Amino acid sequence: MRHRRLAWMLIAAATVTLSACGSSSSGSGSGSSSKPSLTVSAASSLTKAFTAYGNDFPQAQARFSFAGSDMLAAQIEQGVKPDLFASANTSLPDTLYAKRLVAKPVVFATNTLVIAVPAGSTKVSSIADLAKPGVSIAIGSPSVPVGSYTRMVLAKLPAAERKAILANVRSEEPDVDGVIGKLTQAAADAGFVYITDVDATAGKTTAIQLPATLKPNVAYAAAVVDGSAHPTQAQAFIAGLLSGAGQQELQKAGFGPPPK
Amino acid sequence: MKRTPWFAAGLVLALAAVLCFLALPIVAIFVNTSPARLVSSLGDPESTDALRLSLETTAIAVAIILAVGTPAAYVLATREFRGKRLVETLVELPLVLPPAVAGIGLLAALGPDGILGGALSSAHIALVFETAGVVVAQVFVATPFYVRQAQTAFAAVDPRWLEASRTLGAGPARTFGAIAIPAARAGLAAGLALAWGRALGEFGATLMFAGSLEGVTQTVPLAIYDRFATDFPAALALAAVLVAVSAALLIAVKSLAGEGSPARAAR
Lengths: 260, 267
Fold this sequence. Notes:
The structure holds two protein chains of two kinds.
Chain A: H1 2-25, E1 37-43, H2 47-55, E2 61-67, H3 69-77, E3 84-87, H4 91-98, E4 106-111, E5 113-118, E6 137-140, H5 145-155, H6 159-168, E7 169-173, H7 176-184, E8 190-194, H8 195-200, E9 205-209, E10 218-224, H9 231-242, H10 245-252
Parallel strand pairs in A: 1-2, 1-3, 6-7, 6-8
Antiparallel strand pairs in A: 3-10, 4-10, 5-8, 5-9
Chain B: H1 5-31, H2 35-43, H3 45-78, H4 84-96, H5 99-110, H6 117-122, H7 131-155, H8 159-167, H9 172-183, H10 185-201, H11 204-210, H12 220-230, H13 232-256, H14 262-266
C-alpha cells in the first residue's frame, strides 16, 4: 500500500513539474482565453524575434511552429493550414502563392549569410580556410533556404575550391538550428548560417563575414495562408512585422529592414 | 454466459479501433504509392545508399546488442542482488526517452565537448558525423527492447533444467549456452526483431548526434525526412520500402526462432 501511494505521488509530482514548465514557457497562455489563437509557421531563424513579438501581440494568442521553411511549405502543400507562413526566402511563399495556397507574400526582413565557428576556435578564419583538409563543415540541406543560399555562395567560387569545401561537408542539416547545434557542441569546425543565429547563441559562436561579392540576398517573406480562420489577425501580425513591434524585435535580433 | 455479449462486443470493438488506428497510416502509405514508383525509387542511388546504410548499421547495432545484451539479460533474469530494481529501471529508461533527449545526451556524453569526448579523441575514435555514430545512436535506443524481452524469456526457462544441467556436470557457461539460450530462443528472437525494428526507425538521436550526410550518416528515416520537403512521392515510396523491410524482418526473425518452445508457452 505504501508503495502504491509513493507511486501516485511520483506521478503527481512529475505531472505538476511538467505542467509548470509548460505554462512558464507559453507565457501568458492560460489567462487570455478570449483572444483567438493564431498559428504561425515560421522559419527556424525567426524563433527569437517572433517569440518576443508574439508574447506581446495584442490581437491574438500567437502559437508558433518553427522548422525549416521548406518543411513548413511542404506541410502547407499537404493540406496543413496554419494562419500565417513566414519563410527565410521569397521563392517558397511565391511558389505557394502561384498554387493559390497563400495570399500575396510580403517581404518583411533581410538577413546576412555568414560563416560561423565555435567561439575560441582558430581553425577557420576565412572562406579559404574551409577548403583545407581536415576541416569539418555543417551546412543546410539543399531544400532549406539556408542550404540553398550556401550553395549560391559556393557556386561563385572557383571549381577546385568549391569541390574541396564540399568534400569537407560532414552533415546536411534539415534546418539552421541543426547547423548551429553542431557548432555550439563543437562537433563541426564551421557552418553557414545567418548573422542573427550567431547573435542568438550569445557568444557561443563567432561570425566571419563573407566577401561582399559572395553575399547572397537573403530576404524573408510572409503570407496569410488561404483558408485561415483569422485572416484579420494574420494581416495585423504581418503589418506589425513591417513597421511596429515586430520590426523592432526583428532589428533587435539583428535582421535588416525590408528593402524599400 | 448470457450476461457477457455486451462485454464481448466491447472487446471486439476496442480491438477493431486499435487495428484501424494503427493500420490506417500504413495503408495510406501504400495506397499513395504506385508499384512503379516503388520500383523506381529502389533504383534511385540516393535511396539505395540510404537503404544499404540502414541495413549495415542496424546489422552491426543488433550484433552488439545481442553479444552484450544477452548475458546482461541472463544476469537480470537469474540473479537477485541489491539495487536490481534500479538497474532494471535504468536499462528501461531509453524506452520512454524522446529521441531528442537521447541525441542531446549522446552529444553531452560522447560529443567533442562531452564527458568522454577528450578520451575518445585522444584514442582517435570519431563518432559525430561518422557511420559509427549512427550505430551508437541505434544501440542506445534499441538495447532496452531486446534486454527486456530477453530477461522475460530467460526468467520463463524452468530453473530445474538449469539445475539439472549443472548437476550433470556442465559449468555455468555451458548451461547458459547449451540450455538457457536454446530454451529462451523464441523470446530472444522476439526481442531481437523489436530491437532491429527500433534501430531501423531511429531518427532523432541519429540526426542530432551523427548528422545527416548521404552515404555516411543518412539512414532511411533521415532520407525520408529530407525528401519530405522536396519530393513527397519519393518520400512516400521510401517509407513504403522501410515498412516492407521492417515487416519482413519481424516475420523472418520470429519464424526462424520456431514456434512452441517452452519460453514461448510460458509467455
